[in-house]
């Protein structure tokens, strides 16, 4: 049975909110840039899980979460949502992960993003790569 996750593609003025995952052995895609979100708890809908994860990870109450697409592979079902974030980055309280940043589609398409806190470039997690591909497929422009 595959795991279900819900992920937020949160946009702010043409840039996307990213989480640098912890460098912990055993977690999914350690040390890569991904999207905020996580696993569904028993009985949760994807939207409920995503709202909970955003509160837990960055202390943010998302206003509008719009279902975007579902990506399935043998390991997991990923429910992607789109939203807009109006808060400045320094208003978010990072509780999970090593860094957060905003990146443009152009930056995302390079496959790696600079981490201000780590002072190094890190690659994108496959789930974020899939979201970037979807934006490109849809012809997204800021």
The count of DSSP E runs of length 2 or more, i.e. the number of strands, is 9
Helix and strand string, N-terminal first?
Answer: EEEEHEEEHEEH
Span between N and C termini?
Answer: 38 Å
Mean pLDDT over the residues: 95
Radius of gyration: 14 Å
Helix content: 10-25%
Helix count? 3
- Poorly predicted spans: none
Most strands sheet: 7 strands, mixed
Note the beta-strand portion: 35-45%
Shape: globular
Secondary-structure-derived class: alpha+beta
Quick synopsis:
The protein is α+β, with helices and mostly antiparallel strands and 142 residues long.
Fold and architecture overview:
With 142 residues, the chain is of the alpha+beta class. The chain is 20% helix and 37% strand. It has 3 helices and 9 strands. It has helices spanning 46-58, 105-108, 126-137, and strands at 3-12, 15-20, 33-34, 36-39, 66-72, 76-84, 99-104, 112-115, 120-123. Strands 1, 2, 3, 4, 5, 6 and 7 form a 7-stranded mixed sheet that branches. A two-stranded antiparallel sheet has the order 8-9. The longest helix is centred in the middle third of the chain and has 13 residues, at 46-58. It is globular. 30% of the residues are buried.
Question: Keywords, please?
Answer:
single chain; 142 residues; alpha+beta; seven-stranded mixed β-sheet; two-stranded antiparallel ribbon; 3 helices; globular
